[in-house]
């Protein structure tokens, strides 16, 4: 039972990585919007992993996406590791410490819509702020950076909630 559960989660993560690669290669949203599923991929990794393991997995997934996309090498990796750093503290704040420790990974059906929305919102914002600041720092005006973070957040949270409802809201 445990192996089939792990394999199904790995398949879901692989599908999300493939979707992210397709987004990077074929969907151009202009300079203001950065579409990414990396925060959701990090959310999908089991909470049973220790921080160094979660950071290493996040780095590997981010680096894989950096390699196959046409972006700057290391941006997704750095943002993914920063997001992985805050997974457990944000789950304690938004979901509840005892409840968060009992869950293997928080899903929409386990914690409810509003808690999941807050949880995914905070982690998405951490990812986007890290990514966009590293991408634009020193080269773009603050108004452009703030506009890019806001528009990217709206587009990404809609996409993340859609994928969470369609792919990740099932019991495996």
What is the oligomer described by this structure? single chain
Molecular shape: globular
The tally of strands reads 0
Proportion of strand residues: under 5%
Question: What proportion of the residues is helical, as a percent range?
Answer: over 70%
Count every helix, treating DSSP H or I runs of 4 or more residues as helices. Answer: 9
Task: Please tell me the total number of domains.
Answer: 1
SSE ordering:
HHHHHHHHH
Main sheet specs: none
Which features characterize this protein?
single chain, 172 residues, 9 helices, globular
Structure description:
The chain has helices spanning 2-26, 38-44, 51-68, 75-85, 87-94, 97-102, 108-111, 113-136, 142-168. The protein has 172 residues and is mainly alpha-helical. It has one domain. Helix 2 (38-44) packs across helix 8 and helix 4 (75-85) packs antiparallel against helix 8 (113-136). The chain is globular, with a radius of gyration of 15 Å. It starts with a helix and ends with a helix. The relative contact order is 0.15. The mean pLDDT is 86.
């Amino acid at each position: 039972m445990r192996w089939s559960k792990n394999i199904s989660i790995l398949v879901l993560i692989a599908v999300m990585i493939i979707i992210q690669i397709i987004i990077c290669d074929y969907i151009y949203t202009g300079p203001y919007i950065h579409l990414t599923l990396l925060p959701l991929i990090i959310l999908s990794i089991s909470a049973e992993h220790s921080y160094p393991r979660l950071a290493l997995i996040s780095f590997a997934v981010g680096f894989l996406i950096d390699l196959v996309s046409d972006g700057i090498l290391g941006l997704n990796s750095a943002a993914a590791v920063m997001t992985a750093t805050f997974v457990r503290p944000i789950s304690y704040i938004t979901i509840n410490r005892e409840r968060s420790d009992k869950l293997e990974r928080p899903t929409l059906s386990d914690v409810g819509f509003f808690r999941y929305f807050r949880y995914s919102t905070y982690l998405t914002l951490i990812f986007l702020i890290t990514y966009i600041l590293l991408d634009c720092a020193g080269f773009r005006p603050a108004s452009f950076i703030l506009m890019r973070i806001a528009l990217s957040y709206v587009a990404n949270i809609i996409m993340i909630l859609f994928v969470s409802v369609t792919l990740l809201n099932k019991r495996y």
